[in-house]
Amino acid sequence: MYFVPELCTLISLSEEARANITIMKDVAVHTGVAPANRESTLTGFINQINTYPQVRQEMGDKGLKFSNSLVMLNARVMPQ
Questions:
Q1: Where are the domains of the chain?
Q2: 17 and which of 13, 31, 39, 40 could share a cystine (Cβ 3.0–4.6 Å)?
Q3: Whole-prediction pTM value?
Q4: Tens-place pLDDT, residues 36-61
């Protein structure tokens, strides 16, 4: 079983953080990735994580690992 970290943890910003323009700009940089770049960004993120021995050790202790590739599935584009 493979997990994508962004889909495994529920993250919520406090109202104070949402009101802070600087924080929201920083969040937008990481969440506002264009669809064309999303695959390479996620693949790069996973490759970067996989280079850390401590992460591999901790994940291995739990019987988990990150795949080097994204899950491929068939999908349709919904009309706008």
A1: 5-61
A2: 13
A3: 0.53
A4: 788 888 889 889 988 999 988 998 99
